[in-house]
Amino acid sequence: MIKRDTRWMYSALFFGVASGPLSTLVTLEILSLGGNSIDVAYAITLSNVVLIPASMFWGMMADRFHLRKLIVLGFVASTLSLLAMSFSRTIVTITSLYALFTFFSVSYSTPMNLLVMETSEKAKWAYNFSRLSMLSSIGSLAGFVISTVTVNLLRIFQIFMVLTGFGLLAVTTSLVYTPKSIIGMERMSIVHHRESFMTRLKMLPLIFLHIPSIHHFKMFKISRLTKKPINYLPLLYLAIFVFYVSSGLFNTVYPVGLYQEGLDKSLVLGIITGGMFVQIVSFHLAGKVLEKFDEREMAFRALVLRGTSYVVMGVSTVFPELLLPINVVFYPLAAGLAFSLYYSAS
Question: What keywords are annotated for this sequence in UniProt (predicted)?
Answer without folding.
Answer: Membrane, Transmembrane, Transmembrane helix
